[in-house]
Structure formats: structure tokens, C-alpha cells
Amino acid sequence: MPSATVIRYAGQAARQRTPNVVVPFTPTRFAKSRQVPPPHLLTLADLSPEQISNLIATAAALKFVSKNAHTAAIPKRLDRRTVALIFNKRSTRTRVASETSVEALGGHPMFLGKDDIQLGVNETLEDTAKVVGSMTDGIMARVAGHEEIETLAKYSPVPVINALSDLYHPTQILADLLTLCEVYAPVPPPTEVISGQVYSSVLKYYQSALNPAKILQGKKVAWVGDTNNITNELLVTLPRFGMHFSVAAPKGYDKFDERVWSRLTESKTESLVTLTNSPAEALRDADVVVTDTWISMGQETEKAARLEAFKGYQITNEMVSDAGAKEDWKFMHCLPRKKEEVDDEVFYGPRSVVFPEAENRKWTIMAVFEPTTNPNPTKTSNHPIWLTPTFGSPAPGTTARALVSADSVPTRPVLSVRVCSKWGLDLCRQCFREKSKVIGFDKRSTMPGDLV
Question: Which among 44, 117, 129, 300 has the fewest CB atoms less than 10 Å away?
């Protein structure tokens, strides 16, 4: 007969086999580690095409499950996790998408506007990153200069996601890619979904059925308007999927930051990238036409000069057709839109995919937050983005136990939970909700994974 141990939870005794592995609890062992940098997402240039494709497939799966199944089918991976949303600029789509995404995954979105905290005013970015990171499980930041998001990522002990900077806007381009995949090769809905494993079976289906590189290869995207963070993100992303990219901007507004060009050359792509001052040249043979605001936040004093410089750049059906774009060309805009950028006929017409594009902000941001997706290119494993353990996980199939002494944290109970063979402690919390394979665990107790 194997030896046994009795563990008490809320006055009740539970009997189980002696654990194979005993992990003693100490504050330093379960604290957020500084030895292994957390994964960040500052630009899609940091990810491989395979990782971007995985994010898009995850977004498609989350979208299908949310629209066709009960919301309970979405695993609450961010349960009892807090994500700080630090927004130094106004936001509609990014804020709504971020808050609803965290909420849907079971987490708590904490919005921190520019008037709510001391970010860069009475406190340095370094100090803010350390303080906010010590109290939350992730940071999504919308900032002015890109160096600000880089500083937050450098000093934050938790993952940082770029919600917009003056140089890049990765979550917007993820939504654009998902939208284009839906337009050019809509994936039929899965015909078989495993009962009790709705999300995992749908995710597996989309990972095999949705191939952005195959769908988008050879497509030409034409940008007509001011070069900005959206243009930069498209420039470092589209060519790696075999897409051609042409940019038309007036003289003086046709410059790319050297940091962006260097990331493009790193990709060693054979796609054609064209920069011109002629909208007609950029639009020739285009499959997709894209524009954005001519006056970005912080450029309001330049409004008169910019409106004068961009005369002749308004997107119209006549303009695009005369330039020789493909007959079935589509129009995209990240919003908000002004009438001088594109007329109503195009914006509200059948060629426009603007509003599906806007909705896809939610699903792609949720995919970034969904912790079974790891956007860190330095890691080969598929560890969770938010919940990567900072302590050594026990071997699959073993049982871990955290022993809490009166000298450390006297209010915490003794913990015991069987480790999931695939996803470790975090999925075991989900298994507990499904009333499966969790031994001797009281609902009012705290799991070892929650001590990270």
C-alpha cells in the first residue's frame, strides 16, 4: 500500500497519495522573475510569419466560438489576472477591444488614462513600469514616442503590448490581416466540434485551415496618404507574407524612419515595395487600397498646410479605377475617418471592409491576450504569454504541493493539485471549474499558479 498524507481544507480532510514532487513556497521562488525577460509585443517585426499566422488563427477561432457558442466555451485564461491599460492618447476601437477582450478571458482590465497616473509627468517611465508591473499581470500601453513603450518594456516585470506608438501599431495590422483572409479565402465553419472541448477543437481546425501566407501571397496593397505608424507596420509585415506594398505620399510626407527600413531589410523579402508621389502609380494593379488620417494626434497645428499638401489624394471610385486597380479591389481604413481622405461612396460602398476590419480589432487583441499564444520569438515553446511560470514546473503527470509555513505566509492553506500533462497549473484551474482531475482542492484556497 502506498503511503498517504492527509491535508485539511476549510476543516475537511482529503486523502491522497504522497506527492512525487514537493515545491516549498518561498516569496522569492514565486515572485516575478527578473532573470527571464517577459515576452513583449512592440511590433510585428519582432514575430515570425508563423507566429503572426498563429495569432490570426487564434483570433478566427475566438471569433467563431464567441459568435456560435455560449461564451462559457471561451476558456477563462486570465481568471484573477489584472491587465493595466495605460493610454496616453484618446482611443475608441483599441480601448473597447482591449477591455472587452480581457473581460471575455476572465481577467480584470484596469484603464489608466493620462490624467489618472503620473506616467512621464511627476514620475519616470522606468519607475512607472516597475510599480505598475509589480501589481498587475500585464501592460498594454498607448503612448506618444516609441521610445516610451520601449522603456516600459525594458523595466516592466510583466509583458508589455504596444497599443499604439508614433512608430508602430501592431494590433491594428493583425486585424487587417485577419480581415483580408476573410475577404479572399473565407474558411468554412468547422463541421465537427468536440463536446466539452469546443474552443480547443475549433482552434485546432483554424490552425490547420487558415494559412495567411498562402491566402495573401502576391496580393498588392496600395497606401495613399500620409506615412505614419500604420504605414510603418504594414511595411515591416506585408512583405514577409509575400505581399507587394506601394505607398503614395506628397513630397515632404514620404519619409520612413531609418529604424523601419532596417527592419524591412532584415526580413530579406523578395516582395516589391514602391514609394512614389503619384497616387495613380501606387494604385496600379492594387488589390487593396488603404488610407488613414492626414492629421495625426499632435499635428493639429499643421492642419491647414497638410490639407493643402494632400489635395488630390482623396480616395474615390473614379480615382482608383482610372489608375488601373484590380476590378475587385477592396478598401480599408483604421478609423476615425474624415471625408477629405475618402468619399462616402467608397467608405460606405460594397468595396469597403472598414467595419469588419474594426470589429476584428477585438478578436485579434483577444488572441494576443489569450495565454496559450506566445508572441515571444525567443521562445520555442508555446508557453502562455501572460501566465508563463517563473518557477520550475513539475514533470507532466506528477503532483506538486506548496508548503506554507507560519514564518512565510501564515494565512495561506496547504495546496495540492494534480498538474495537467499539457498546460500545467493554469489549465488545472480550468479543470477544477469543470469538476475534473483536481484532488483535495477547496474553492476558497489559492492555487500555486496564483502565487506567481
Answer: 300
